[in-house]
Design goal:
The structure is a single chain. By secondary structure, the protein is of the alpha/beta class. The chain has one domain: Aldolase class I (TIM Barrel, Alpha-Beta Barrel), CATH 3.20.20. It is 31% helix and 29% strand. It contains 8 helices and 13 strands. The chain has helices at residues 33-42, 60-73, 87-95, 105-109, 112-121, 169-179, 219-228, 239-245, and strands at residues 9-14, 17-22, 25-31, 48-52, 78-81, 100-103, 126-135, 145-147, 150-158, 163-168, 183-188, 210-213, 237-238. Strands 1, 2, 3, 4, 5, 6, 7, 8, 9, 10, 11, 12 and 13 form a 13-stranded mixed sheet that branches. α3 links the parallel β5 (78-81) and β6. The longest helix is centred in the first third of the chain and has 14 residues, at 60-73.
Length: 246
């Protein structure tokens, strides 16, 4: 089967501005989201993802305005996530022009909202975001990995990587898919902003669409990733990757 590989820039947004950081910290301004959306669309991106990392109630109007402005300047599908806790939150995002809704913390707190979103808007609109981090404190019942003589498992973190959940990433991804997720947006906290390449231990044995995020800084890393991974129908790049690929 021929797999579809897509270039999907992901833009973290805070207070209406695109930002970037390291391991979800040291956040710095990176530009205007509408201008960047138009730029990446013109440069050949297949889709876009916007994640409101503040996700506070005060920012709901800001993100709705952003969605509407982005929809006016691009003609490719885009996903918006951050702070989605209810069907109403999702409806507002979609009505303002987004094609898909991303949900992370809200899904952990209330897993059945994934099914509710799927039943109301369709599986193709539901993207479950997962922020993963390597944990070297081995626990019973976790999916254990080994690298360079060290064992670890991947834990799900919420609230922008600030709160550990004790949940195994692999098990949560499987559960999210069963509940109705159309795609999984997988982010490695360990690799975020490092430009050292993807965490190759993460994208394993997924039979459903997976967007793998962070770590690509040049064409060689991108090419190695595509050659080494054969089970994933979708591919995810961080925003700076587009600049290097064109």
């Amino acid at each position: 089967m021929t797999l579809t590989k897509r270039i999907i820039p992901c833009l973290d947004v805070k207070n209406g501005r695109v930002v970037k950081g390291l391991h979800f910290e040291s956040i710095k301004d990176a530009g205007d989201p509408v201008e960047l959306a138009k730029k990446y669309s013109n440069e050949g991106a297949d889709e876009l993802v916007f994640l409101d990392i503040t996700a506070s109630d005060e920012q709901r109007k800001t993100i709705k305005d952003l969605v509407r402005k982005v929809a006016e300047v691009i003609d490719i599908p885009f996903t918006v996530g951050g702070g989605v806790k209810s069907l109403e939150d999702a409806r507002n995002i979609l009505l303002n022009g987004a094609d898909k809704v991303g949900i992370n913390t809200g899904a952990i707190k209330n897993p059945h909202i994934i099914t509710e979103l799927m039943e109301l808007f369709g599986r193709q609109c539901v993207v479950v975001a997962i922020d993963a981090k390597r944990i070297f404190d081995i626990q019973k019942g976790k999916n254990i990995f080994s690298e360079n003589g060290k064992q670890f498992w991947f834990e799900v973190f919420i609230y922008g990587g600030k709160e550990a959940t004790g949940i195994d990433v692999i098990e949560w991804a499987k559960k999210a898919e069963k509940l109705g997720a159309g795609e999984i947006l997988l982010t490695s906290i360990d690799k975020d902003g490092t430009k050292d390449g993807y965490d190759m231990k993460l994208p394993i044995l997924y039979s459903f669409p997976l967007l793998h995020l962070v770590g690509v800084a040049n064409q060689m890393i991108w090419w190695m990733f595509l050659r080494n991974q054969t089970l994933m129908p979708l591919w995810q790049l961080l925003y700076f990757t587009i600049k290097l690929m064109v």
